[in-house]
Amino acid sequence: MELAVSELRCRPVALLLLLLHAGGCATWRPSEVGPRELIEQEQPRLIRVTGVDPVGRLVRNPRIEDDAIVVDAECRRSPNPQGGYICPTEVVVALDDVTRIDVRRVAVGRSVLVLLCIALAGWAFAFSTSDFLAGS
């Protein structure tokens, strides 16, 4: 009976881990509209801007002023071996210099597929464990 109680205690933890992973299936997708329209209409929290510098820049909370993207923080990958991002404040990117803007979107199909695979694997493991325990 002790084993059954410990199994019941593990289920909420497993469910929590499963739900935390569900939001992780996101991808960067190119915007189908121009930078001005994207920022003014969708007001994204985070975008990746590619311009004269071929390395995409992560831009948080962008807004349009005149003919430029004005941001409170522009984050770049840190050159440090530890990684991470460096986020200076108040940076302006001219709209003429922008060649591409990517927006982070949740891949619903991938998320559902991952959840189904995890659920199936969990069910198969639980079923095989219960058969094994019943036989001993």
Please indicate the percent range of residues in DSSP E strands (runs of 2 or more). Answer: 25-35%
The SS-based structural class is alpha+beta
In CATH, what is the class of the largest domain? Mainly Beta
Largest sheet: 8 strands, antiparallel
Helix content: 40-55%
Please state the average pLDDT score.
Answer: 75
Order of helices and strands: HEHEEEEEEEH
- Overall spatial form: elongated
The total number of structural domains is 2
Question: Which residue ranges are poorly predicted, with pLDDT under 50 across at least 5 consecutive positions?
Answer: none
Tell me the Rg in angstroms.
23 Å
The separation of the N and C termini measures 14 Å
β-strand number: 8
Oligomeric state of this protein: single chain
With helices defined by DSSP (H or I, 4 residues minimum), what is the helix count?
3
- CATH architecture annotation name of the largest domain: Roll
Here the CATH topology of the largest domain equals SH3 type barrels
Description:
There is one protein chain. By secondary structure, this protein is α+β, with helices and mostly antiparallel strands. The protein folds into two domains: 1-24 and 107-136, no CATH class; 26-106, SH3 type barrels (Roll). It is 42% helix and 31% strand. It contains three helices and eight strands; from the N terminus they run H-E-H-E-E-E-E-E-E-E-H. Strands 1, 2, 3, 4, 5, 6, 7 and 8 form an eight-stranded antiparallel sheet that branches. The longest helix is centred in the last third of the chain and has 28 residues, at 108-135. The radius of gyration is 23 Å and the shape is elongated.
